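Q: What does the assembled structure look like for these inputs?
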Amino acid sequence: MDIAVVQQPLQRLSGLLAPELQEVDSLIRSRMTSENAPRIPDITQHLMDAGGKKLRPILTLASAALFNYSGYDHIRLAATVEFIHTATLLHDDVVDESKQRRGRPTSNLLWDNKSAVLVGDFLFARSFQLMTETNDLEVLSLLADASATIAEGEILQLTASQDITTTESVYLTITRGKTAALFSAAAKVGGIISQADEAALSALFTYGDALGIAFQIADDLLDYTGKDDTTGKNSGDDFREGKMTLPIIKAVSQATEPELAFWQRTISHNQQQAGDLDEALRLMKKYDTLASTRAEALTWAERACDAIETLPECEIRDLLYDLAGYIVNRAK
Amino acid sequence: MDIAVVQQPLQRLSGLLAPELQEVDSLIRSRMTSENAPRIPDITQHLMDAGGKKLRPILTLASAALFNYSGYDHIRLAATVEFIHTATLLHDDVVDESKQRRGRPTSNLLWDNKSAVLVGDFLFARSFQLMTETNDLEVLSLLADASATIAEGEILQLTASQDITTTESVYLTITRGKTAALFSAAAKVGGIISQADEAALSALFTYGDALGIAFQIADDLLDYTGKDDTTGKNSGDDFREGKMTLPIIKAVSQATEPELAFWQRTISHNQQQAGDLDEALRLMKKYDTLASTRAEALTWAERACDAIETLPECEIRDLLYDLAGYIVNRAK
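A:
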C-alpha cells in the first residue's frame, strides 16, 4: 500500500463520508442560529471557520456506515457530538486562559469570558435538543453519562494542575474523562442507531476509548515537540500552565533531589523564568520521557485496533484501523 | 383568611410537600457526589447549604400533586430542575463577577471562576442524566428546549448590558429566557408525568411562565428597594453592573437631555462616582418607576393566577394562587 495513503486515513474517511459530513455541516449551521442572540452564531462560526478535524462526527458516521445505517439519526448525532465538543472547547479556553486555538485567537480573547461561558452553555443545550430528536433512550442515556464524565475529567484536571504528585493513573482518569468519553460515545451511538449487537457496541466503545486516550497523549506530546504553526497552539503552554501531562509526570517520578526542586519551583509554585522550558525539555530528554510517552500512545492505538478486529470487514473498518496509528504519528 | 397565612404560601407548600422535598434533597445529595473529583460536592454543598427557596422543585412537586401523581419521576424531575438552576447560578456568578449570593460569598470567590464553570457543566450533565431516567421523551424535549432558551436569555442579557436603548420588550425576552423558561418547564413536567390533558399542561406552562416573569421583575425591584440582609445581595449591584432592568428602562424612556447624559455616563460608559446610585434612585422616584415596575409584576402575578383557574380545585392550587402574590410582595 502507498505510504502516503496510509498516512492520511482521516482525509480518506472524510472523503468517503463527504455527503454525510456536508449534511452534518448544514445541520450545525441551521442549529447554531438564534433569533434573539446574534452573538451565538458569531462565536460558533468563529470556531467552525477555524476548521477542526471533525474527528468525533466522523467516528459516529463511520460506525453507522459499518452497519449500513440508513436514516437521519447519524447526521443528528454527528452534529450533537460536534456541538458538545465545541462547547467544551469554549469552556476550556476560559479555564485555560488560552490565547490561541487552531492557530487563531480564542473566542474568550475576541469577545470575553462571559460570552464564552454562555455560548458554551447554549451549545450544550443545542446538542441536547438534537439528540432528543432521535427519540432513542439508549443514545440519550449514553450521551448524558458521557457529558458528566467529561466534566468530571476537566475538574479532576483542574485539581491536579500544579500538583507534582499526580500519578500516571490519575492522568489516565483525566484523559479518559475529558477526551476519550466523547470519542467512545461518538463511536458507540453510530452502532446503537444501527441496532448492532452488544459485542459490536462494546467493540465500538472500546475503540473510541482507546483512540481518545491515544489522541490525548499524542496531543500532550505535541505541546512539547510541535511547532506553533503545526499545532495552532503556543508550544510549551502546558509547562507554563503547570499541567501535569505524561512527559512531566514521568520525569518527576525519576527526579533527583535538585531536579525535584526545579519541578517544585516551576510547577508547584509556578515561579518560572527564562530558560525554564529548555531545562524542562532537557530533563525530559535525560529520562527519555517523550519517547516513552509516545510508546504509550502507540500502545493505546494498538488497543483501539484490536477492539475492532471482529467488526465487519470493509474499507471503513480498515481506515478506522489506520486512523489510530495516524493519530499518534502526528506527534512525531 | 388569616393574613399571616396568605403571606406565607411558599412555607405552606413546603410543609405540604415536605416528604417529597426530603426525597428530592437526598436524591440531590446522592447525585452531587463524584468519585474522582471531590471539588464537585464541596462547591455544590456550599450552594445547597445557603438554602435556596427551592421554588422550582416545589413547582414540579405541586403540579404532580394536583393530578395525584404516584411514582418517582416527580422526585427525579424536581431534582433535575434544581440542578439546572444551581448550574445557572454558578455560571451567572462567573458572568456577573458577583461577590455575594444568598448572603454568602459566591463560589467563584471561594474557589475560582474555573471551578465554577466546570462544576456548573457537571451539574448540567447530572440534570440531564436524571431526566433521562424518566424515559419520558416529551419531558426530555421540553427540558432541552428550556435549557437552550435559558442560555439565549442570558446571552441576550449580556449583549443588552450597558445598552440604554434596551426596550421593555427586550427586557421581557431576556426575563422569559433566563428565569421564566425553567419555571414554566418545572410546572409543566409535573403535569406531563401525571398524564394531564393538553389544556391542563398549557395552563401549567402559562402559570410557570407568568410566575417566573413576576418573580424576576420583583427580584430586579429588590435590587433597588431591598436591604443587603434581606436579599443576600449587594443593593444597587444592577446599577453598578449597568444591567438594564425595568426601573432604569422606564426612567431612561422619559429622561430629559441632562438625565440622558447621566444615564449615558453611568450605564453606557460605566463611569460611576460617589452619589450616582442616589441620583439614579432620585430619577426613578421622579418618574415613579419603582411603583410602575411593581404594578407590572402584579399584572404578571394575576396572569399566573388566571392561568390555573381551570385546574382541579384543591389546597395546592389555592396555594399556587397565593404564591404569585406573595412572590411580588417580597419586593415591597
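The first strand of chain B starts at residue 100 and ends at 101.
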